[in-house]
Amino acid sequence: MSDPTETQAQLKPGPTRGARHRQAGVVLVFSAGEAMAAPIPLGELGRGTIGGVVIADSTMSRKHASVAHDGKRWTVRDLGSRNGVMVDGERIPAGGELELDRPRLMRLGESIFLFSLDREAFAEASLSGDRVAGPSLRRAWDAIASAARSGGTLHITGESGSGKELAARAFHDAGAHAAGPFIAVNCAAIPEGVAERLLFGARKGAFSGAHENAEGYVQAADGGTLFLDEVGELDLQVQAKLLRVLETREVLALGDNKPRRVDIRVCSATHRELRGQVAEKRFREDLFFRLGLPHVVLPPLRERLEEIPWFIERELRKLDPSLIAAAAFVEACMLRTWPGNVRELLAEVREAGRTALADGAGVVDVDRLSPAAGASFERAQSPSGTSITSQGGMPAREVIEETLRREDGRIATAARVLGIHRNQLRRWLAKHNVDARAFADKAGDSTEDSEPDPSEP
Q: Which CATH class is domain 304-368?
């Protein structure tokens, strides 16, 4: 597979809908071994039919939990379930309730639900076995399709592994040049000193070793789309020549005295913000205004939790059609940050699936997932590459505090990201007199966890 999200390039623009009233609710995204996307209204949840959605999970009680939202906060109550209610990885006390500002997901038995302030947005998503795009990515793809219909350039930003080349292919496929070539160039991988020759071509005899005419990437993209990934890595001299190509629609090969007309669309991408590179004089301002707009941001996987069960299901079925994931495995994947996004997730799922098959297991349990999978690199190294763990194997204070801040003071979730046990983190907080609630947007119940289990470390 050339890219972990290659099927997304098949997506077409979503339907244009008028304004609608947003309704809070939950979305069933995984149940009894299968990925799904079923919006459910607020109220009681349990095995059976709720809001037209059939929940056939035998591990759920008929009255398992209730969910309410008052416009500001969520309230989750355990209705006396036989196997408990897990919210963001933490169990609610039996028969108890929990109030939260921004919970992400809930596990009831072998089913996982997302909390959503706009549950009907999932009706417009593309979530199936071969098309994976939740509401946030769906909006990005619609913006790409709109840009393809209205102009000749598009700039894409997004983290590594978020699918920038697929977005460029979608831009190409949705435009008038779809029948032409799609030429992808990783500017960061071009050796120093040869970018001009590779991009714009060279005539025979233009330099030592040029024994014949060589077509550049720009000429090869004539009639189609040129995709310049990590365009900010081009040196300023090459940027100037690229600007001229965009302005004149002509390209002059090295050693040639006559420019060639080209009809190309240009899609560029970076994982960094181009405006900052302009401010640092590393990217030409005039080229930015030719390439930088329109601009589409691809959301990272941690903002597209609804897609994770589908990626897991699809990847495991490639290994063995009978292989399925346990809900606890899916839950653990959904709670991690995945700095490498879809690419990293799929690699870890493949590894977990292979180990399960090697042991003759048909279900991938949570213990198959590496503790380091999906964790922030900040836990292990500083930008200089030196260790930032403190004595005793605990992360350094600044890393712990930054993780708590990012996780809104949730102790259990922060501990999972840091790769330590939540009780270790509690003891560290007590020892250093640090209040986790100080890192939440609002101090209160959002940082609460279940009571420590005396049997746990």
A: mainly alpha
